[in-house]
Design a protein that fits this description.
The complex is a heterotrimer of chains A (286), B (327) and C (340). Chain A is mostly helical. Chain A has 14 helices and no strands. Chain A has helices at 2-10, 12-29, 31-34, 65-71, 73-101, 103-118, 121-131, 137-148, 150-164, 167-175, 179-187, 192-215, 226-235, 244-272. The two termini of chain A are 40 Å apart. Chain B has helices at 2-28, 33-42, 47-57, 65-77, 92-127, 132-145, 149-163, 183-220, 223-230, 235-273, 278-287, 291-319, 321-324. Chain B is globular. Chain C contains ten helices and twelve strands. Chain C starts with 18 loop residues before the first strand and ends in a 17-residue tail after the last strand. By secondary structure, chain C is α/β, with parallel strands linked by helices. In chain C, the strands form two sheets. An eight-stranded mixed beta sheet of chain C has the order 6-7-8-3-9-10-12-11. The chains are: A mainly alpha (286), B mainly alpha (327), C alpha/beta (340). Chains A and B meet through helix 6, helix 7, helix 12 and helix 14 of A and helix 1, helix 2, helix 6, helix 7 and helix 8 of B.
Chain lengths: 286, 327, 340
C-alpha cells in the first residue's frame, strides 16, 4: 500500500488527476457551502452574463449557473462511482472466473464477454431508455453497468491468466486451500492496481455515456446534472443566443472530471505494467 | 483459415444476439412498455398503421412469444422493417437508407483516418521514448480521452461557427444547393463535414495513439528488435518492419473492440450538428417515439460495427502469418 | 576513455588480439540509484578463439555480452572501460559508425530463436534485409541458400515463417543468419538453453565444426559449465558482475581455484563414477545496487576468511590462470587444496 501511495506521488499525471477529483469531491460533499442557493429556482433574471451577483451568469430560465454547476457535481460523481463500482465487480467476477476455471467455462464466458463488448453501447442504451416514458437515474445506472463491464473483464482475464500459473498459487493449492480462498486472498491482491485502473476506466465510461444520454434528454431532466444543463442549453439554443457560458461550462466540468479519471487510469496502468513507466536515462561516461 | 471461420462464426453469433436483444427489449422490460406504447399509439394511428407497427416489432397478440420471435427474425431477414410511425407511411428502409451514406462518409472515413494517424503518432512517440515527443504528447492524449464527444462538438461550433462564423454548423449540406453529383453540392457537403469530422477526430485519436504507443513500448523490448539492431539495420526499417508491424496486430483487435464506443460518440456528434446520418435519425426517432425506425437503426449500427470487426479480423489474418497456420 | 578515431589504428591480424576488453563497466539506473551489472571486466580474445563465459542467472554475463556489442538500451549503459575490436574502440561510437562493424564483422546468436526472429517475416526475408542493409554485392538468394546448407537446414525453409520450423531448425537458421558475412566474431547468448539435451549437443558439435571451417572467434555465454567446457579454448567464470576466474578451459575445469568455480563443478553430477551427494551453493547472489564490501562471494563461500569481508580481492595470477580470491593472493603461504 505504501508503495502504491509513493508511486502516485511520483507520477505527475496521477497527482493532477487526483487533485481535480478531490476538488469535485469537495463540491459534491458540501455544495451548499461553496455555492449557496437553489439550482432549480427560476427567476426573471434570464440570460444574464457574468456579474458579481451571478458568478457565471444565468440560464434562459433565470437560474444561477454557478450554483447549478456546483450542485451538479454530486449526481455526476454518484453516477460515475456507483456505475463504475458495479461494473468493476462484474468485470472481476466474470474475467477472473473465466481465467481461473478454464476449459469450457472460459470459452463460454469469453464468448459472452466479446459479444457484449462489440455491441455498440450508446445506441443500445438510447433504445432502452427510449422505451420508457419516464427516465430515472437508476435505470440509467443499470444500463451503464450492463454495458460497461465487458472491456474490463477482458483485461482482467488476461492478467489473471498470466498470474494463474505462478508458483505462489501452486503453493496455495498444495497447501490444500479451497479454490475460492485462493482466488480471493491470493490472486486478487496481486491484481489490485489493474482492478483500480479498471474501476477508473469504468467510471470514465459511465460519466461520458451518462452525460451523453442526459444531453439527448434521456436522463432525468428535472435533476440538475451537468449533462441535463447542456440539454437545456441546447434546447434553448444557447449558442445561437449568445449564452456561451451556459453552453461551455457544464461540458467543461464533465471534461475535467473525465480527464481526472483518464489520468488516474493511465497512472494505474503504468503502475501495474512497469514496462510503460518513464524510462530513466543513465549518465554514460564516454 | 480456421481463424477466419471462427471469426465468421463469431460474427453470425453476435448478429443473432443483437437481433434477439432488439426483439427482447420491448417485450421483456418491466412495466410492459409495449402495451403502454401501443396505448399511446392508439390515439394517434389508424388500424393499418398500427398493424404495420405491430408486424415491424414482431408484436402479434395472436401468436406466442416464440412465434412472434420467429416472425420477427423472418422480417429482418427480408428487410421488412415496416413503416415509420412519425412519417407514416414512409417505409423504414427509406428513412434508414438515406441516412446510411451520410454516416458512412463522415464516421467511416474519420474513424479510419483517426486510427491510421493515431497509430503513426503512437509508433513515433514510442520509438523516440524519453524524448520530448514522448513526454509531452501522451499526457495530452490521455486528457483527450476524457473529453466528451458532444462537448467538443459544441465547443467547435462555438469557436468556429458562432463567435467566428467561418464554417457551417448544421446539416449535411446547404439546402439552397441542388442535390446530385455536381461540384457545388460536393463542395457544400465537404464544407459541412469539416467540423463534425474534426470533433470525432480530436476525441477518438487519443485512444489510438496511447494503445499503439503502449504496445510498441512492449514490442521494442523484444529480442527480435535487439536482433535487428545487431544486424545494423537502419532505424526507420526497424521501427516499421520489426516493431510497428508486430505492434499493430493487437492494436487492430483493440480497434475492433472499441468501435462500439466510437460509434456511440459519433451518434452524439451527428445530433449536435444535425447531420442527417444514422445517429441523428436515431435520436429523432426516440424523440418521436418512432419505434420501428429506432429498432431498425439500432440493428444497422450494430451490423456496421460487426462488419468492421470482421474486416479488422480479415486484415489481421492477412498481416499475421501465425493465424494462417492450422492451430 | 575517449573513443578512438574511426579509422583502424594499425591493427595487425597476426599480432594483435581480435578483441580487447578493458575495465568494462555497465550500470543500470534504478529508483534507488544505479546498480553495477558489470564491474571492470577485462580480457582478450584472439582470432578463431572459442571463449566461454559461465555463471548463474544475474551474474552479468549477458549484460557483458551486449555491452561489448553495443546492444544495451536504457536504463542500462556503459559507464567505463573500453572494448577494442580490431584496433577500434566500440564504446562511444554512434550507430552510424557501428554500421560497418555490425553483422559484417560481429554477429549475434540469441537464446530463443522464437523470440529473436521477427514472427511476421519469412526466414529468407530476414536474411535479405541484412544483406541489403550492408549492400552485399553478390547474389542474395545464392548466399542465403549457401549459409542454410552450411548449418544443415534445407534452403526451402527460407520461405517459411519462424513458427513453422522446429526449435532446432530455428536455432540453426539463426546461426546461418549469423554467418552471412563470414564475420570475425560471433557472440552467442545461451543459444542451446532452449533445446533438449540431444539437440544441444548436436548443435554444439556443428558450431565447433563451422568454427574450424570458417575460422571465426566465438564468445559463448551459458550457465551450463559442463556443456561449454567440451568445446571452449578458454573459460571465464563470472560472479556478481566480476570475473571470478579466467584461464584455459582444461585448467579451470580440472583444477578450479575459485571456491565458486569449484562449487559450480560440484553441482553437476558425473555420468560415470560413483554416486555422490549433489552439492549446491547455498545462499543467493549479491544485490548489485548495494554490493557488500569485500569479496562478493564471501557470504556463500565455504572457505571464507575474516579478511574476505574487509577488502575485495583483485585478480591474482596463479599458474596462467587469473583468480579473484584471497586464497590465491601473493603472499598467501598456505592455501588449502580446492577439491576438484
Amino acid at each position: 500500500m505504501t508503495n502504491l501511495l509513493r508511486a502516485i506521488r511520483h507520477n505527475g499525471k496521477a497527482a493532477a488527476g487526483l487533485f481535480i477529483l478531490l476538488l469535485f469531491l469537495l463540491m459534491a460533499l458540501v455544495p451548499g457551502l461553496i455555492a449557496p442557493g437553489d439550482p432549480a429556482r427560476i427567476t426573471p433574471d434570464t440570460s444574464l452574463g457574468i456579474s458579481g451577483q451571478h458568478i457565471l451568469g444565468t440560464t434562459a430560465f433565470g437560474q444561477d449557473i454557478w450554483v447549478q454547476v456546483v450542485h451538479g457535481a454530486r449526481p455526476a460523481l454518484l453516477i460515475a462511482v456507483v456505475s463504475g463500482l458495479f461494473a468493476t465487480v462484474l468485470s472481476v467476477l466474470i474475467g477472473v472466473s473465466a481465467a481461473y476455471l478454464g476449459g469450457v467455462w472460459d470459452d463460454v464466458l469469453n464468448l459472452f464477454t466479446d459479444v457484449v463488448l462489440v455491441i455498440p453501447t450508446l445506441p443500445l442504451v438510447v433504445v432502452i431508455a427510449g422505451y420508457f416514458a419516464h427516465h430515472s437515474i437508476s435505470v440509467m445506472i443499470i444500463a451503464l453497468v450492463v454495458t460497461g463491464w465487458s472491456y474490463g473483464a477482458r483485461q482482467l482475464r488476461s492478467q489473471a491468466l498470466s498470474l494463474r500459473n505462478r508458483d505462489f498459487l501452486e503453493a496455495a493449492k498444495v497447501r490444500g486451500e479451497r479454490r475460492s480462498y485462493i482466488i480471493v486472498f491470493e490472486l486478487l491482491p496481486n491484481m489490485t492496481s489493474l482492478i483500480v485502473a479498471n474501476f477508473l476506466g469504468a467510471a470514465l465510461y459511465s460519466i461520458l455515456t451518462a452525460s451523453g444520454l442526459e444531453f439527448l434528454g434521456l436522463g432525468d431532466v428535472n435533476t440538475y446534472d451537468w449533462g441535463t444543463m447542456l440539454y437545456w442549453a441546447q434546447n434553448q439554443s444557447a449558442l445561437q443566443t449568445g449564452g456561451y457560458v451556459w453552453a461551455a461550462v457544464p461540458g467543461l466540468c464533465i471534461a475535467l472530471l473525465g480527464t481526472a479519471f483518464a489520468l488516474l487510469n493511465n497512472a494505474f496502468d503504468e503502475i501495474s505494467n512497469p514496462a510503460l513507466r518513464p524510462v530513466r536515462r543513465l549518465r554514460v561516461a564516454a | 483459415m480456421r481463424f477466419l471461420l471462427r471469426r465468421l462464426g463469431f460474427f453470425v453469433l453476435t448478429l443473432w444476439a443483437a437481433l434477439t436483444i432488439n426483439f427482447a427489449i420491448p417485450h421483456l422490460l418491466p412495466g410492459s412498455p409495449v402495451t403502454a406504447m401501443m396505448a399511446r399509439y392508439h390515439g394517434r394511428l389508424n388500424g393499418a398503421a398500427l398493424q404495420a407497427v405491430e408486424s415491424a416489432l414482431g408484436i402479434d397478440t395472436h401468436q406466442s412469444l416464440f412465434g412472434q420471435y420467429l416472425s420477427y427474425l423472418k422480417n429482418c431477414a427480408t428487410f421488412n422493417f415496416g413503416t415509420s410511425v412519425a412519417n407514416f407511411p414512409t417505409p423504414v428502409t427509406t428513412i434508414v437508407g438515406t441516412a446510411i451514406p451520410w454516416t458512412l462518409g463522415l464516421v467511416g472515413v474519420t474513424t479510419v483516418l483517426a486510427f491510421l494517424i493515431g497509430t503513426a503518432i503512437g509508433s513515433i512517440a514510442a520509438w523516440k521514448r524519453g524524448g520530448k515527443l514522448d513526454s509531452v504528447l501522451p499526457p495530452l492524449f490521455v486528457v483527450g480521452t476524457g473529453l466528451p464527444y458532444f462537448w467538443v462538438a459544441i465547443m467547435l461550433i462555438m469557436v468556429f461557427g458562432e463567435v467566428n462564423p467561418w464554417l457551417p454548423t448544421a446539416f449535411g449540406s446547404d439546402n439552397t444547393v441542388t442535390t446530385g453529383w455536381n461540384s457545388d453540392f460536393i463542395g457544400s457537403v465537404l464544407q459541412h463535414a469539416i467540423l463534425p469530422a474534426a470533433a470525432i477526430l480530436v476525441t477518438s485519436i487519443g485512444t489510438w495513439v496511447l494503445t499503439m504507443r503502449n504496445t510498441m513500448v512492449t514490442t521494442l523490448a523484444e529480442d527480435y528488435v535487439r536482433m535487428a539492431r545487431a544486424k545494423g539495420l537502419p532505424g526507420r526499417r526497424i521501427m516499421v518492419d520489426y516493431a510497428a508491424r508486430n505492434s499493430i496486430l493487437p492494436n487492430l483487435t483493440g480497434f475492433a473492440m472499441s468501435l462500439g464506443f466510437v460509434v456511440s460518440g459519433a451518434v452524439l456528434v451527428e445530433y449536435v450538428f444535425s447531420y442527417p446520418g444514422v445517429g441523428y435519425q436515431l435520436v429523432q426517432a426516440v424523440d418521436n417515439e418512432d419505434f420501428p425506425v429506432m429498432q431498425c437503426l439500432f440493428l444497422v449500427i450494430t451490423v456496421a460495427v460487426l462488419l468492421s470487426v470482421l474486416l479488422a479480423d480479415i486484415i489481421t489474418a492477412l498481416l499475421d502469418p501465425r493465424t494462417r497456420s492450422a492451430r | 576513455m575517449s573513443p578512438l578515431d574511426v579509422t583502424d589504428l594499425g591493427y595487425e591480424p597476426d599480432r594483435d588480439p581480435l578483441l580487447q576488453v578493458s575495465e568494462l563497466t555497465v550500470e543500470y539506473a534504478t529508483a534507488r540509484g544505479s546498480a553495477l551489472a558489470v564491474d571492470r571486466v577485462s580480457f582478450t580474445l584472439r582470432r578463431g578463439e572459442f571463449l566461454g563465459i559461465v555463471g548463474e542467472s544475474g551474474c552479468g554475463k549477458s549484460t557483458l555480452l551486449f555491452g561489448i556489442a553495443q546492444l544495451l538500451s536504457a536504463p542500462a549503459g556503459i559507464t567505463g572501460g573500453s572494448a577494442v575490436f580490431k584496433g577500434r574502440n566500440l564504446v562511444g561510437l554512434t550507430e552510424r559508425q557501428l554500421q560497418s562493424v555490425r553483422w559484417s564483422q560481429i554477429s549475434v546468436v540469441m537464446q530463443s530463436a522464437m523470440n529473436a526472429l521477427n514472427p511476421v517475416k519469412t526466414i529468407g526475408a530476414q536474411f535479405r534485409d541484412v544483406l541489403r542493409a550492408h549492400h552485399y554485392a553478390a547474389d542474395h538468394a545464392a548466399r542465403s541458400r549457401e549459409v542454410m546448407e552450411l548449418v544443415g537446414v534445407d534452403p526451402v525453409h527460407l520461405n517459411s515463417y519462424p513458427h513453422q520450423l522446429s526449435g532446432g531448425m530455428r536455432q540453426r537458421s539463426m546461426i546461418a543468419m549469423a554467418l552471412l558475412f563470414s564475420p570475425d566474431l560471433i557472440i552467442m547468448d545461451e543459444p542451446t538453453s532452449a533445446l533438449d539435451v540431444v539437440a544441444q549437443r548436436s548443435l554444439m558439435v556443428q558450431i565447433k565444426e563451422l568454427q574450424r571451417e570458417l575460422g571465426f572467434a566465438i564468445i559463448f555465454v551459458t550457465h551450463d559449465m559442463s556443456l561449454v567446457s567440451h568445446f571452449s579454448d578458454r573459460l571465464i567464470v563470472m560472479y556478481g558482475g566480476q570475473i571470478a576466474e579466467l584461464g584455459a578451459t582444461r585448467t579451470v575445469f580440472d583444477t578450479p581455484r575459485h571456491p565458486y568455480s569449484a562449487g559450480l563443478l560440484d553441482a553437476f553430477p558425473s555420468i560415470r563414477g560413483p554416486r555422490l551427494p549433489l552439492l549446491g551453493i547455498p545462499g543467493t547472489p549479491p544485490d548489485l545496487s548495494d554490493p557488500p564490501p569485500g569479496c562478493r562471494f564471501a557470504a556463500r563461500c565455504p572457505q571464507v576468511m575474516p579478511a574476505c569481508t574487509e577488502s575485495g580481492p583483485e585478480l591474482y595470477s596463479v599458474d596462467q590462470v587469473l583468480v579473484r580470491c584471497l586464497l590465491h593472493a601473493p603472499g598467501q603461504v598456505s592455501h588449502q587444496e580446492v577439491p576438484a
